[in-house]
Design goal:
With 270 residues, the protein is an all-alpha fold. The protein has helices at 2-7, 20-27, 32-50, 61-64, 70-101, 115-133, 141-155, 163-174, 176-191, 204-208, 214-236, 242-268. The chain starts with a helix and ends with a helix.
Length: 270
């Protein structure tokens, strides 16, 4: 999705090149993969309901009452999809309109960064976070708070591992690259022209928010570290020895992830 959107970037603001307006559009698709995973989970729950498969039996009795039916999950999918693609369309239109209406300033080939398109990505990410964690009794607040508590348990794996913890951690390993992209997007928002609107755009943000930056690298490897610790915790609690082999599998993936990030940083971008 990320590469497709970059390839479809309108020609109206191609002249900005790596300028902030084009970079703002690149920040948006990073959340698209997470929304796609939510759609797939909603479809899986709907399939379980149609087949009368009691998938909730995998969860402890205390957690079953917080599981949302497929209709509510689909409702969240529609809201998140509207936010992502609505933000992408709005940012694209603003970039194209700004590039067509405002000529580059004299002596500055990229012109002054237009602030209107740059506001869209931070507002999009903020709206996604609010829709998920808003402490208001809408959109099944109990289920959303259960997800937030489970996410906290996954990121701080000090308690016994439950089915929800394992399932979420396993999904996060599949979303490791997307999490890294979201971290880089947030870094670009903090270091880019939105934080410094009166300074011309430069490559400073790109150099501070590369694939080997601490935040991006942590977001990439943290899910695999969590799964490794979960496997060790299950084994120490009396689980089968196969959990040690699973832990070794996740540990062996860490060098490959770091080398892949190094490859993207020093070769692919060039």
């Amino acid at each position: 999705m990320d590469f497709a959107v970059r390839g479809a970037r309108p020609a109206a603001f191609q002249g900005f090149g790596q300028a902030p307006c084009a970079a703002a559009v690149d920040l948006l698709p990073a959340a698209g993969t997470a929304v796609l995973m939510l759609w797939l989970w909603a479809q899986a729950v709907a399939h379980f309901e149609q087949r009368h498969i009691a998938f909730e039996a995998c969860f402890p009795a205390l957690e079953r009452r917080w599981l949302a039916p497929s209709s509510h999950i689909f409702r969240l999918c529609v809201i998140f999809t509207w936010l992502v693609f609505g933000g992408l369309a709005l940012c694209t239109c603003l970039c194209a309109a700004t590039a067509a209406a405002v000529p580059a300033a004299a002596g500055s080939p990229a012109g002054q960064p237009p602030l209107a398109p740059l506001l869209v990505p931070p507002l999009l990410y903020l709206s996604l976070a609010l829709a998920l964690l808003l402490p208001v009794n809408v959109l099944r607040k109990s289920s959303r708070m259960f997800f937030a508590c489970t996410l906290l348990k996954v990121l701080v794996p000090l308690q016994p591992v439950g089915w929800a913890d394992f399932l979420l951690a396993d999904m996060l390993t599949s979303l490791a690259k997307s999490s890294s992209d979201i971290t880089r997007s947030a870094c670009l928002m903090l270091h880019g022209p939105l934080a410094h609107p009166f300074h011309p755009y430069s490559a400073t943000a790109a150099s501070a928010c590369g694939y080997l930056s601490p935040g991006s690298l942590a977001a990439l490897v943290l899910p695999f570290l969590v799964r490794m610790l979960q496997c060790i915790s299950v084994w120490r609690a009396g689980g089968p020895r196969s959990q040690l082999f699973n832990a070794l599998k996740y540990a062996s993936s860490l060098p490959a992830l770091i080398l892949t990030a190094h490859e993207h940083e020093h070769h692919v971008q060039e």
